[in-house]
């Protein structure tokens, strides 16, 4: 894969992102209600004041005009103002990005470190009791809804045992490293469980596939032992199918683990999204969703680069 | 060193299947001397590949096991060891260094993600602890040995950049890198064009003389047998049905199955053409014995033109047909 291919991929993403923005803009405006409905029943906000706000945010214009206005300012780097808080959208997002990256990053790293060995062991001992146990646990992990496992863990470890804080990023008046770490344990666990479960399946199936290849038998015939056959000959080829899934999951989590962040009152992107959705905060929603879309497109390009690194046939083909 | 290089005695290999244990090899005896090529011949399903994989101990426990017999191998140190009893660790020390194997599919037997040079030198790095630099030099030397042009450049290539014949040369180079005393070649030319087949056979013969290896050459192609073998063992239904020196087998087969195999090979030599005789190809009727329901007597009896009631009674013993040959047929004397 050449540099020019990369450039072409990136240029190709531009019209795609325009299309996405158009669809997103249409969809959020199709949702019933609007940003000013919160004030509708508030007697201290006069109809005249409402009309003024509507004009100030351009909400009185037709939707296509609103889209063009939004697009024009977006192109010059102005993400607009949040209708809900009045603060710049970009500032709000950046404030929330830190906690999300912290939670998501740690979860992703943990998931990777656990899922890869689990998948390998499961594949290398396929049909064994270990494999059945891992498989059962993985399906349980995939099937359990996140909100349920989150609530259950809160109940056990915070309410009954009192070992861990139930929500938030830090205790009020504390904020030491250990306090922050304690607050991370439950959300990271919840977020990782589902990813570990699904990634380990992808890695297992990739591994099972590769282990039955002829070149694995060749490696044994050369005198390699099982461990080094797996690490040197199988793993690299087995990771290829898992790459896309991992890249996309990474973006999904970075662009807001909505449920986990909500249950654990984590001040991240996911919660910002829920709050903005409830308030029909159009500029904020567009900002968040466009960020996610750029992330997904970027993740796909990165996955392509990783493929090429792992597989010389793609690199030279 | 005296005694055979490889001496397989009464080997039995079983596979686990959903229908129960399947006996793929039912008591096979084979010997190979240093510098000798034994061709193991048979149809698909005759158990010839399983015999070779058993000797390499490359049948995963999950799939099957060696249920009986001995695989006696005389190592470089002169010690004779039973490979069937060796633990995996000791076995992997022998694999790639003293016993090497090449496979049927050069297209898939090389790792697509590794460079040719690294794959050739792999066994040498593993068994001789070669440095990266020495390994590279050895790989280039091996590429030259198997007559690949521009070895320095090819060492950096990936398998997908090479043709099938080239890849089989690379496989041979990677198998011979530690100078093994026994090479097991499982249909190494089957997947190649016939012109390339011949080149590979000539190469193998040359290397065998240089390295003085014993070769267990598995094939179903009797043309290949004539080209490379010193002795031939014919397998059918998991048993050796005939063995003899190559000329004897090709000229005077004693087992109906061997005779059938020879009859199904088109003759293209000048003698046949000059005499104007276009012999009809003779097919062996019927199909390979079902390993889950073998007949009570001779495995080949249902397809055999010479079959009689005595053939159905019991599995015939392997009888000596001369000073160096054996056949598993009670009527071998009538077959000439």
Automatic annotation (TrEMBL), chain A:
TM region positions: 12-31, 103-124, 136-161, 181-199, 242-266, 286-310
Q: Which Gene3D superfamilies match?
A: MetI-like
Predominant location: membrane
Domain ABC transmembrane type-1: residue ranges: 97-307
PROSITE patterns tied to this protein: ABC_TM1
Q: Is-annotated flag, keyword Cell membrane?
A: yes
InterPro entries named among the record's database cross-references: BPD_transp_1_N (IPR045621), MetI-like (IPR000515), MetI-like_sf (IPR035906)
Q: Under the cellular component aspect of Gene Ontology, which terms does the record hold?
A: plasma membrane
Establish whether keyword Transferase is in the entry: no
What terms describe the molecular function in GO for this protein? dipeptide transmembrane transporter activity
Task: Tell me where it resides.
Answer: Cell membrane
User: Which CDD domains does the entry link to?
Assistant: TM_PBP2
Membrane-topology annotation of the record: Multi-pass membrane protein
Q: Which Pfam families match?
A: BPD_transp_1, BPD_transp_1_N
Keywords, in A-Z order = Cell membrane, Membrane, Transmembrane, Transmembrane helix, Transport
**Family statement:** Belongs to the binding-protein-dependent transport system permease family.
Protein name as it appears in the record: Peptide/nickel transport system permease protein
TrEMBL record, chain B:
Q: Kindly state which keywords UniProt assigns to this record, in alphabetical order.
A: ATP-binding, Cell membrane, Membrane, Nucleotide-binding, Transport
Q: Which CDD domains match?
A: ABC_NikE_OppD_transporters
Q: Could you give one GO CC term from the UniProt record? A: plasma membrane
Query: GO MF annotations for this entry?
Result: ATP binding; ATP hydrolysis activity
Q: How does it sit in the membrane?
A: Peripheral membrane protein
Residue ranges occupied by any ABC transporter domain in the UniProt entry:
6-262
One matching Pfam family: oligo_HPY
Domain of life of the native organism: Bacteria
Which PROSITE patterns does the UniProt record give?
ABC_TRANSPORTER_1 (PS00211), ABC_TRANSPORTER_2 (PS50893)
Q: Where in the cell is it found?
A: Cell inner membrane
Any one Gene Ontology biological process term? transmembrane transport
The text of the family note is: Belongs to the ABC transporter superfamily.
Official protein name in the record? Peptide/nickel transport system ATP-binding protein
